[in-house]
Amino acid sequence: MKTIIEPYLFFDGCCEEAIEFYVANLGAEVEMMMRFKDCPDPLPPGMDSDENADKVMHATLKIGENKVMASDSCCGESEEKVHFAGFSLSLAFDSEVDAKEAFAKLADSGEVAMPLGETFWSPCFGMVTDRFGLQWMITVQDVQA
């Protein structure tokens, strides 16, 4: 039996903007994207509004060799904002040049939690929260280990 963990990210109405950002800055590829208005089945009450019609119901992105799924949060009448908490996505690179480039792009309009630097496990590691509130850990794999 093959088991795969694929993160599913819920954005607060800015999923398409986030997708465009990850395509432009991380080289993500959009494998699939469907809007609520394109759903072939009837949507539950609250999700079928004109306000939600153009929002992203489901998308699949390929970043490197991995897949990340994403959607806008259209879960009825909840006023609570979506917060990414309790996890980070980790990007591992073979080169410091690639790691530094990705880190800088994610940090643009974001917030650096730990600047890139050498650690005992990596020649280059840092943590950043991007403009969408998603936390990333950027690391260079120690290819000499």
Structural description of this entry:
By secondary structure, the chain is of the alpha/beta class. It is built from two helices and eight strands. The strands form two sheets. It has a four-stranded mixed sheet with strand order 1-4-3-2, covered by helices on one side. The protein has a four-stranded mixed sheet with strand order 5-8-7-6, covered by helices on one side.
* Number of extended strands: 8
Name the helix and strand elements from N-terminus to C-terminus, one letter apiece.
EHEEEEHEEE
Indicate the overall shape: elongated
Which range does the strand content fall in?
A: 25-35%
* Mean of pLDDT: 90
What Rg do the Cα atoms give? 17 Å
Helix content: 10-25%
Rounded to the nearest angstrom, the distance between the terminal CA atoms is: 30 Å
List the helices and strands and how they pair.
Blueprint lengths: L7 E4 L3 H12 L2 E7 L20 E8 L2 E7 L16 E5 L2 H12 L3 E7 L7 E5 L5 E6 L5
Parallel strand pairs: 1-4, 5-8
Antiparallel strand pairs: 2-3, 3-4, 6-7, 7-8
Quickly list its features:
single chain, 145 residues, 4-stranded mixed sheet, 2 helices, elongated
